[in-house]
What we know:
The protein has 214 residues and is α+β, with helices and mostly antiparallel strands. The protein is built from eight helices and ten strands. Helix content is 40%, strand content 25%. It has a four-stranded antiparallel sheet. A four-stranded antiparallel sheet has the order 2-7-4-5, with no helix packed on it. Strands 9-10 form a two-stranded antiparallel sheet.
Amino acid sequence: MYKILEKCPLFRGMSSDDISNLFCKEEYTHKTYSKGEVIARKDSEYSSLMIVLEGAVIGTYSSSNGNTTATDEITTSDLISPAFLFGGYNRLPVDVIASSDKVDILVIHRAKLFELMQDSVIILSNFIDVLSNRANYLNKKLFYLSFASLKSKIGEYIIDGYNNGGVTTRDIMKYFDITLISVERILGSLVKSEIIDIDGENIVVKDVNKLKSI
């Protein structure tokens, strides 16, 4: 468990020995789930931090018309909804569902996490970084929502990727939660206009000014 937690954002910069010295067995619990099982319900009180030790989970929510939407997948060593652990409204915004055959969850009570942050400036700093990174991510999501068409959203996303090491078709599918057919249709029009090229999954920008203009 502690080797896995070395890769967890909350314990970044700490060794497995450092982490194991922080815990007594009665200060955390393990829970195991099978694919499709509900780990936590939307609007349930979130009083203990959950960390994925094995497998993957997704968040889902249903609209008033009955349609269900899945959020980003959370995988091994990631935290589940850390921003909702503290504050006046500490309730989960989504149903948390096991999305792999086996999911192992570490549960740390809020009071223990508070104690860890008081005892370790590394953990406190890491937790603040986690919340800040999540806020930046959500801010970016809202930014893309300001664009009228999916084509303009994807165009802006490609520009961001162009400035930060590149982007792939798989990245676009995952980020915007759309099918490969939808991605190919939009990218195909950009290829036809000689704005981009496709090399396997990689997107090569040929004319960044034309891309900005869409």
